[in-house]
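Hi X.,

You mentioned you wanted examples for the new student's onboarding notes, showing what a folding record looks like when two proteins sit in one file. Here is a clean example. The first protein comes first, with its sequence line followed by its structure tokens.
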Amino acid sequence: MFSWPYATALWLGILTSISPCPLATNIAAISFVGRRVGRTDKVLLSGLFYTIGRAVTYLAVGAVAVAGVSSIPQVSTFLQRYMNKLLGPLLIIVGLILCGVIRFDLPSLVSSRRAQEQAERGGVLGAGILGIIFALSFCPVSAGLFFGSLVPLSIAHDSVLVMPSLYGIGTGVPVAVFALLVALGAQSVGKAFNILSRVEWWVRRGTGVVFILVGVYFVLSHILGIEVPA
């Protein structure tokens, strides 16, 4: 049954994809896909393979992280006992990152230009390779959302496969949509990206505020033992 934890995993993926750093990689991906604008079927296939590449990568990384933590008896027992207490501070930290209060830099593991050049050799399948490479290029926001929110959420709900998959699909949705626009000959893809970047500022901070409020609730109820009306 599709419930709020799964919807949250999907939303976290979408939010990741429209955040500044991932959005830049997605623009690069759209540029790569757009080179095949003369062939509608290849544009759509490239967008699909890029989305699949991202989804599979996040599924693999998430599954390894969740399964690895859960397979260690001591860690699994600790998390089962203290997960609700850990979620509060984690959500607050991620919320502060989303609101831009906490800032930090992560080293870039991949050059977008080099990735596109290598993927170009693979044709349509190269778009899938591009999705894998860009998915592994974590930035502060995507790292916070993935490791600070998705992984703990997946552990709490014992979801090794489904939630990471939904997150990956969410990160690829905008690319698939814009690939469709390119395939249909849309002339306003750049404008759509500009609008999306402006909307993202409000959406990201709104989500950050929600994370902080939920985190405060978890801290009050599970750490301080204060009864808070749900």
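Then the second protein repeats the pattern, sequence line and then tokens:
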Amino acid sequence: METDSPIIIRTATKEDAELIADISQQTFIDSFKNQNKQENIDKFIKEQFTKARLIEEVGAPNNIFLLAYKDNKIAGYVRLRENNNPPELQGTESIEIARLYAITEMIGKGIGKALMEESIKIAKAKNKKVIWLGVWKENERAFSFYTRFGFEKFAEHDFILGNEVQKDWLMKREL
């Protein structure tokens, strides 16, 4: 019988950088490999989503990483970013959910919900007016998840995955 163990969320430190880089790459691959060409994913990881670049993000100014654990195992993470507003939000005190992922085997266990709730709590504590994110328009599960939390589409932008230009929807929630 599976126990309903709590989800523990903590703020990541520079010591977590390698772990975050590893799970960032793995969750990205797991999330998008079935809907994209392998060569585009490989090129994106090699050129834009490198382990070195991901490690640099942890502890960098205007970045907050949260790690989620369940049953003493890493279960997911979120990256919040304060300095990357799209033109549509200029002048608005806002924070971006730059990435929010659960490890594949932890999907459906409340990890995303716990990370989202903590992200909203941090945004409110920082007196932000808006929390926003970008989501690939083909990612229906993620779009549905964000909609349940009150996010609404307000713009779109291009996302380059390898050699392919994809559309991301920008979604926001007023706080």
